[in-house]
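Narrative of accomplishments. A recurring question from our advisory board has been how the design workflow behaves on a single, concrete structure rather than in aggregate. To address it, we present the structure tokens for one chain from the evaluation set, followed by the sequence designed for it. No filtering or post-editing was applied between the two.
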């Protein structure tokens, strides 16, 4: 289980993709709520300030989660390595899906050339 800065828990799931998605969604959702709450206390409608607060909350949660991963490393090295590897892999997959690296296009072209029909 991973805890966010505000105390919300994200349960570990054996299916890493589900765990990764749940953790990312929780970080975004809870960071957004914290930024909105802090912004309402400041009584400002400045969208740039709100965006800065949102990014700060995301970074704070990322640091908080990373610290916990280092603590997990002390007691369960395999789980920690699996989680870090999964984070890197999923981050790369997201980047590839949103970028034009040409890798997928090259694979599709190769596949077309190998098809006889």
């Amino acid at each position: 289980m991973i805890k966010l800065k505000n105390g919300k828990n994200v349960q570990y799931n054996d299916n890493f993709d589900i765990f990764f998605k749940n953790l990312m969604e929780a970080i975004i959702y809870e960071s957004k709520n914290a930024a909105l709450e802090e912004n309402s206390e400041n009584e400002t409608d400045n969208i740039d300030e709100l965006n800065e607060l949102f990014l700060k909350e995301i970074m704070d949660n990322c640091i908080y989660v990373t610290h916990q991963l280092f603590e997990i490393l002390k007691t369960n090295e395999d789980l920690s390595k699996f989680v870090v590897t999964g984070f890197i892999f999923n981050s790369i997959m997201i980047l590839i899906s949103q970028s034009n690296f040409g890798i997928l296009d090259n694979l599709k072209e190769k596949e077309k050339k190998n098809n006889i029909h």
